[in-house]
Amino acid sequence: MLTELQKKAAQAIVNIFETSRPLGDYSKVTLIQGDTGHLTYGRSQTTLASGNLYLLIKKYCESAGAEMAEALMPYLGRVEDRDVNLDRDMTFRRLLRDAGEDPVMQQVQDRFFDSVYWQPAIGAARSIGVSRALGVGVVYDSHIHGSWHRMRDRTNERFGQVADIGEERWIAHYIDVRHDWLAGHSNTLLHRTTYRMDAFREFVADDRWALPLPFTCRGVRVDEATLTEAGDPRAGSEADEMRLLRLKTPFLQGDDVRAVQQALADAGVDIRVDGIYGPATESAVSTWQRRKDLVVDGIVGPGTRASLGIGD
């Protein structure tokens, strides 16, 4: 039985593979040219083509307090039909990114990916006799990335089952089998994903079967603070106070918006101070950024705040 921290460590490895972040990126929208999965989204990058993107968005829209539900509902039919034109629908992609910042969406994604990927991976690992944290992580990665059953059977055929050769040897062989399959796949997009197996090879070589913390995966350090609430960058009022301000649907509101508007007004920019970050405020921010030779993107981050004399 894995501890909660071992579960988070195994998931962190796959999150790094998918989004470069140990806790995942709930807002990440990806489209890779030639990818048969088409548009992918969220912490574990579920796809339009699989139908799972529809299930995820549907669960979110049905959840109480979902900020972006009303805006996303009109898209549900097209997502259910796996309409590939959504790949390049910039409004839809923006709505997904905005929804990823909603704590409700983050909770929905955590439950959804646990149900769709983690729990089946735990069951699959248990059924063949894999119980160590690293081994479960390898099985989980294949459930996220695909073709677990085919690679499991190929490993069994070539090297024997876990019961015959032991868990550690079997997982090491499985990693090699999967690496070779990815490297030689007819879909050349998969060739570049051999890094996943290279990373697991490093864990095996270092004998990190229990996934003790801290460790580094693809240059990203993972420690206990990273995986607990105290280390979660989404937690805490400081993160909320220093949020990026930009045009979203629905419009951002609050004292931080009002402070930026007031600073712009004091600097001579024509703007209404109402605490609502609408199109007029975005335009005013862009005007200020242009005046100060900043990147003109209408987004208030640390640089724009500093230029307005608003303390970080």
Can you describe this structure?
This protein is mainly α. Among the domains are: 114-235, Chitosanase, subunit A, domain 1 (Up-down Bundle), CATH 1.20.141.10; 238-307, Orthogonal Bundle (Muramoyl-pentapeptide Carboxypeptidase, domain 1). The chain contains 16 helices and 7 strands. The strands form 3 sheets. It has a 3-stranded antiparallel β-sheet. A hairpin with a 2-residue loop joins strand 4 (215-217) and strand 5. Helix 6 (103-128) crosses helix 7 (133-145). It starts with a helix and ends in a 5-residue tail after the last helix. Residues 253-308 form the Peptidoglycan binding-like domain. Pfam families: Glyco_hydro_46, PG_binding_1. This is Chitosanase.
Mean pLDDT: 89
- Work out the helix count: 16
User: What is the CATH topology descriptor of the domain at 114-235?
Assistant: Chitosanase, subunit A, domain 1
Shape: elongated
The share of residues in extended strands comes to 5-15%
Low-confidence stretches: 230-241
CATH class of the domain at 114-235: Mainly Alpha
Estimate percent helicity. 40-55%
What is the gyration radius calculated from CA atoms?
Answer: 23 Å
Element order: H for helix, E for strand = HEEEHHHHHHHHHHEEHHEHEHH
* DSSP E strands, number: 7
Give, in spatial order, the strands making up the sheet with the most strands. Answer: 1-2-3
Major sheet details: 3 strands, antiparallel
CATH superfamily (homologous) name of the domain at 114-235: Chitosanase, subunit A, domain 1
N-C termini distance: 44 Å
The CATH architecture assignment of the domain at 114-235 turns out to be: Up-down Bundle
